[in-house]
Design goal:
Blueprint lengths: L7 H16 L4 H49 L9 H7 L2 H11 L1
């Protein structure tokens, strides 16, 4: 059985059919209430997930745009932020890294 999970209505139908199969063992008085509660919770969970993913994607897009702008500023030389020089990088090197570098230069 192929299910089109891209379609919202097809997902609901599929989940409803699967839940109906699972609910056959529960009495009719509790089955409908339980099914309605499960469906509402599933819909709320999917909705919250979609909102969170949307927010995350928007944040990623904004961060990417900021990085691109900063990279363009750095390339054009118009940035006010300090660019790390080899001297600044050397200060961050450990003693072990400095010894390795000295050996490579020999």
């Amino acid at each position: 059985m192929t299910v089109d999970l891209q379609n919202s209505e097809a997902r609901k139908t599929y989940l409803s059919a699967k839940l109906d199969d699972l609910m056959d063992g529960i009495s009719d008085s509790y089955g409908t209430v339980l099914m309605d509660e499960l469906i509402s919770r599933l819909e709320r969970t999917v909705s919250e997930f979609n909102n969170e993913v949307g927010t995350l994607m928007l944040s990623l897009k904004e961060n990417g745009e900021r990085r691109n702008e900063l990279m363009e500023k750095i390339k054009s030389g118009t940035t006010d932020q300090p660019v790390e020089t080899p001297v600044a990088q050397e200060k961050e090197m450990s003693a072990w890294e400095k010894r390795l570098e000295a050996l490579e230069k020999k």
